[in-house]
């Protein structure tokens, strides 16, 4: 019994905190990152759980067209130009927008890291060739290119992600290349070569993890711009048919802006908030991953 | 006398066709000995070691020969050897440690993983066995509490500790040659003597031949069996340590020896006198 009166030893061995954990904690501590995370969590909850809590088909006619929010007999956020429930549209439409944003960012990060990494690490003529290739994509009118891709093939969620991912990678490639070029000359890479580690393994095990912070930040920002891009394509009528996304809602109702502000403003605000939350997280990550702040 | 384990013959290194960094350098390294390569900054010491390891980049042109005799007795010409064969030697039979322990370790991997890497690569050791071997290697370089230390990241270790980790990394495969490029320059004096003592002990325990690159004649006196003195990319003098210290033939060697401060050497002198550099246009 008396044993329990003894205070617990408070000193712990100074073991390394889990790295990911410490970055996440640092993200929570940065005010910008915390706000972004909260906003994104709200968006995700709304799009994942929302349709279950508010089971209204967003494609069905729910009432007279263009009912304002709060009008008698109207759904909570009113109806659009053909009388579909706007709240149901917002809750369901976020799923496509967020999915396309994340998938496109993943694809563009993969392409960008592979091309930038090879160019930066190998240098020489490979670097020149890959960078000319990257510049070709940078000078390409990307909206037009993505539109052509989507119209040539079936517009679908997958196709939209592909079309956006394939045009969004040059920035990632350039940043990755710069990081790889910098890290390639550092002592620990030379030391790794001195114990006989092959180039590919050095790239993947040594250089890539050390180059990750800026890559993570730019990938996050690409999620935001990919969502905008998806909304833009949907606005132009190139969204995936048969699905609701914030962009298609915006596009379908755009000529009603003067007479029914809510039909355009609400999906627009949803896009704005989601992209803003991702940008804030990107900024927060930028702080959290900054080695100067992480140093003890 | 036993045959040399490494024979360097008229080694030359030029970067982009400019002034050579190493000219006509020849020396032998015998099994189990410590050979010190001494000279001021820019005299070509480090470039020599990088050339032997094949670690210079494409801008460098290397001429001459560097013949390594492997454990089976076959002679391997290191200059111009293919990357794949070089990689098999590096870290396994010829290893190297660098000057800056602060930057020579990868910040995102634990030190244990980094030591285990060479074993897994050259010996195909399993992950778990390599981890155990890494802890043993850390024990061998006298790191206290090696099991816990092996889980830590480089930034959690002090400079001396990191240099020990570097040595463990380089020695874990029991190389037959260890090239130590100014291993103690970045450390303070007490740590410096600990690390040198450790290198001497390891050499005795494993029989590894050590090429010690330094500019410190004090370190040479303490560690080396033989000395190669370099100045402005050329060999100036070589011989047994006792011989060179007792009776330096070249004025440059004498000047290097005089650069080591001695107790009471400043008696009657107000300020340190600038080190006399031989003129640049001599080349």
* Total helical elements of chain B: 10
Order of helices and strands of chain A: HHHHHHHHHHHH
The average pLDDT of chain A is 83
Largest interface: A-B, 25 and 37 residues
Compute the gyration radius of chain A: what is it? 24 Å
Number of strands of chain A: 0
Gyration radius of chain B, to the nearest Å?
19 Å
> Biggest sheet of chain B: strands, sense, closure?
6 strands, mixed
Percent range of helical residues of chain A: over 70%
Description:
The complex is a heterodimer of chains A (296) and B (283). Chain A starts with 18 loop residues before the first helix and ends with a helix. The longest helix of chain A is centred in the middle third of the chain and has 37 residues, at 86-122. Chain A has 296 residues and is mainly α. Helices cover 71% and strands 0% of the residues of chain A. Residues 1-18 of chain A have low confidence and may be disordered. Chain A is built from twelve helices and no strands. Chain B has 283 residues and is of the alpha/beta class. In chain B, 35% of the residues lie in helices and 23% in strands. Chain B has ten helices and ten strands. Chain B has helices spanning 45-53, 83-89, 111-123, 127-140, 146-149, 159-171, 189-206, 217-223, 241-246, 251-258, and strands at 6-15, 20-29, 34-38, 60-69, 75-77, 94-97, 177-181, 209-214, 226-231, 234-240. The longest helix of chain B is centred in the last third of the chain and has 18 residues, at 189-206. The relative contact order of chain B is 0.16. The interface between A and B is medium-sized, with 25 and 37 residues.
In short:
The complex is a heterodimer of chains A (296) and B (283). Chain A is mainly alpha-helical. Helix content of chain A is 71%, strand content 0%.
């Amino acid at each position: 019994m008396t044993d329990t009166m003894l205070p617990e030893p408070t000193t712990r061995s100074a073991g390394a905190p889990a790295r990911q954990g410490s970055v996440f904690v640092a993200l929570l501590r940065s005010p910008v990152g915390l706000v972004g995370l909260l906003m994104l969590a709200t968006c995700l909850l709304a799009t994942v759980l929302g349709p279950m809590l508010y089971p209204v088909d967003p494609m069905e006619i729910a009432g007279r067209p263009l009912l304002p929010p709060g009008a008698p007999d109207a759904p909570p956020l009113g109806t659009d130009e053909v009388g579909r429930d706007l709240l149901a549209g917002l809750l369901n439409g976020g799923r496509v927008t967020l999915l396309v944003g994340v998938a496109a960012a993943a694809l563009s990060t993969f392409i960008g890291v592979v091309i930038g990494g090879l160019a930066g690490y190998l240098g020489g003529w490979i670097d020149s060739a890959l960078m000319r290739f990257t510049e070709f994509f940078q000078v390409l009118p990307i909206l037009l290119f993505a539109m052509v891709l989507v119209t040539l093939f079936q517009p679908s969620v997958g196709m939209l992600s592909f079309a956006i991912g394939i045009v969004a990678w040059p920035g990632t490639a350039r940043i990755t290349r710069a990081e790889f070029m910098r890290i390639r000359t550092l002592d620990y890479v030379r030391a790794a070569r001195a114990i006989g580690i092959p180039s590919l393994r050095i790239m993947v095990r040594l250089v890539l993890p050390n180059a990750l912070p800026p890559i993570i930040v730019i990938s996050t920002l690409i999620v935001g711009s990919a969502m905008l891009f998806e909304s833009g394509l949907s606005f132009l009528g190139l969204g995936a048919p048969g699905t609701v996304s914030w962009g298609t809602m915006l596009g379908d109702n755009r000529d009603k802006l003067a007479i029914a502000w809510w039909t355009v403003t609400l999906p627009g605000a949803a896009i704005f908030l989601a992209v803003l939350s991702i940008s804030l997280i990107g900024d927060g990550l930028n702080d959290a991953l900054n080695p100067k702040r992480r140093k003890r | 006398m036993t045959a040399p384990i490494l024979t360097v013959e008229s080694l030359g290194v030029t970067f982009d066709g400019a002034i050579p960094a190493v000219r006509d350098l020849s020396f032998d390294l015998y099994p189990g000995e410590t050979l010190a390569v001494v000279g001021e900054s820019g005299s070509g010491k480090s470039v020599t070691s990088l050339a032997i390891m094949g670690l210079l980049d494409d801008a460098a042109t290397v001429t001459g020969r560097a013949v390594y005799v492997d454990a089976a007795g076959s002679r391997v010409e290191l200059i111009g050897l293919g990357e794949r064969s070089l990689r098999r030697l590096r870290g396994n039979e010829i290893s190297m440690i660098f000057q800056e322990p602060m930057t020579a370790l990868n910040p995102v991997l634990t030190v244990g993983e980094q030591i285990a890497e060479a074993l897994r690569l050259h010996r195909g050791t399993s992950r778990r066995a390599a981890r155990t071997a890494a802890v043993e290697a850390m024990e061998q370089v006298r790191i206290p509490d090696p099991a816990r230390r092996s889980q830590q990241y480089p930034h959690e270790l002090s400079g001396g500790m990191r240099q020990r980790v570097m040595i463990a990394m380089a020695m874990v495969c029991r190389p037959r040659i260890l090239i130590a490029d100014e291993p103690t320059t970045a450390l303070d004096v007490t740590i410096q003597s600990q690390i040198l003592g450790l290198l001497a002990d390891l050499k005795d325990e494993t029989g590894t031949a050590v090429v010690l690159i330094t500019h410190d004649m004090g370190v040479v006196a303490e560690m080396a069996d033989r000395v190669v003195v370099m100045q402005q990319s050329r060999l100036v003098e070589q011989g047994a340590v006792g011989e060179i210290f007792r009776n330096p033939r070249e004025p440059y060697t004498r000047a290097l020896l005089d650069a080591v401060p001695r107790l009471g050497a400043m008696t009657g002198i107000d300020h340190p006198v600038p080190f006399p550099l031989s003129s640049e246009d001599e080349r």
